[in-house]
Amino acid sequence: MKIVVIGGGQVGSYLANLLLSNGHDVKVIEHREKVFAKLEEELPKEILLFGNGSDPVILEQAGIDEAQVVAAVTGADEVNLVVSTLAKMEFAVPRVVARVNNPKNKWLFNATMGVDVGVNQADLMGHFVVEEMDLKSMFTLFKLNRGDYSIVQIKVADKAPAADKLVKDLSIPKKAVLIAINRAEKTIIPKGDTKIVAEDEILFLTDEHSRKVLNDIFG
Fold this sequence. Notes:
The protein starts with a strand and ends with a helix. The protein has two domains: 119 residues, NAD(P)-binding Rossmann-like Domain (Rossmann fold, 3-Layer(aba) Sandwich); 94 residues, 2-Layer Sandwich (Alpha-Beta Plaits). The relative contact order is 0.13. The chain is globular and about 50 Å long. About 4% of the residues have low confidence. By secondary structure, the chain is an alpha/beta fold.
């Protein structure tokens, strides 16, 4: 599947890593020089494109005409909306996913603006409070509006059950996928024989129930 990601910050880079590890054809657009330089250290250079993701010319250079999915995940709602509208109305992209940063703008992220799926971060703190999650060890990068899945990051505690164990030896819930490990400013795509160590920052795709189990294993 060909996917164009607009925004190379933390969410965009994680998303790109996830998609690449699953064999997808990915292009990432980023206009900030420092962020782009960091991306060049973390991702294959051939998938990166420097420029403004709301510029139709840049989108065409990224191959949006052939894309099945566009993900607008910048930190600016206005940019994500412009990209979404262009992707859907101008380039007829089948599926458009957009990140919502400001809760007051949530109502704008709809089909009229070209958004198929809104990734709404506004409600995340409320979920944590209700569920009494441990905010010190786990936080949600974004929540998918359809279904109850989220992408979360959890920091491995010194005495966590998972510390110093191999991934294959952990009882990770079936509805949770270990996407990546951040260790000493490096990103590791985990395998069965990858060892988990204290202070690792683990990225998971997980449902609500499994998130609680992961907190017990890694937190």
